[in-house]
Amino acid sequence: MLKTLTCTSLLISLMAISTMAQDNSAPATLSQQLAEKAAGFAKKAPADRLAAFTKGIDDVRASGIEDSAKQVGDDAVDGTLAGWKGDSVTLSELWKEGPVVLMWYRGGWCPYCNIQLRAMQQSLDKIENAGARLVVLTPELPEKAKETAEASGISIVALHDQDLALAKKYGIVFELPEVIAPMYQARLPEYNGNSALELPLSATYVINSSGKITYAFLDADYKKRAEPSEVIEAVKAAAK
């Protein structure tokens, strides 16, 4: 009898381990994917380069941009922007029909942006089924945005926020801190078509049908982005 119980207990333990293994095989969240990317970079990057990026994040945060940007409860700023297909989109015409998810990404040169774009693509059906439209904005030129979409295997069409004009109205644009600016001097003009050393926060907003901001993700750390599941919950709340 003791031997039978021991075997039974062993079987239960193995089944429990198997169940835990299955749970751990669940798709990684966006935050987990971003953290993994950051950890990989930290392992191979020179210490001085890591220190420069860390100080750059600290400098952006110290500017107060996270608090001075548009916040929950503020009126959304309208704008008309065009995508690489040449069609124009007026934001207010979209949010009159239902909630809008407004998301900026920095450019196809940014690996964290590409991870976020793929995650949002995978959640697009859930976002739309919750009643919202996803609007992706970027300062990169339309032809570059098209290349970014093709490279990432996404169908999302990014609208061109030329010279970050709309992002500036939302208060999410910052000048690159001196410690990291030299790293972008060749890259940004090529992608954005101007010489400005400026970037937007990787901000995500949810706007309801009254044109009010009901959700805002603002973080000076470019390695952190709005989690799709949180955006979907925000959309559901805005649609009520």
UniProtKB/TrEMBL annotation:
Catalytic reaction list: a hydroperoxide + [thioredoxin]-dithiol = an alcohol + [thioredoxin]-disulfide + H2O
Cell membrane as UniProt keyword: no
UniProt domain Thioredoxin: residue ranges: 70-240
Group of enzyme by EC: oxidoreductase
UniProt keyword terms in alphabetical order: Antioxidant, Disulfide bond, Oxidoreductase, Peroxidase, Redox-active center, Signal
CDD domains: PRX_like2
Entry EC number(s): 1.11.1.24
Signal peptide interval: 1-21
Biological processes annotated in GO: cell redox homeostasis; cellular response to oxidative stress
Keyword Secreted: no
Lineage top rank: taxon: Bacteria
One CC-aspect GO term: cytoplasm
Single GO MF annotation: thioredoxin peroxidase activity
Record-linked InterPro entries: AhpC/TSA, Peroxiredoxin_BCP/PrxQ, Thioredoxin-like_sf, Thioredoxin_domain
Family as reported in the entry's similarity comment: Belongs to the peroxiredoxin family. BCP/PrxQ subfamily.
Function: Thiol-specific peroxidase that catalyzes the reduction of hydrogen peroxide and organic hydroperoxides to water and alcohols, respectively. Plays a role in cell protection against oxidative stress by detoxifying peroxides and as sensor of hydrogen peroxide-mediated signaling events.
Name of the protein this chain belongs to: thioredoxin-dependent peroxiredoxin
Organism encoding this protein: Rubripirellula amarantea
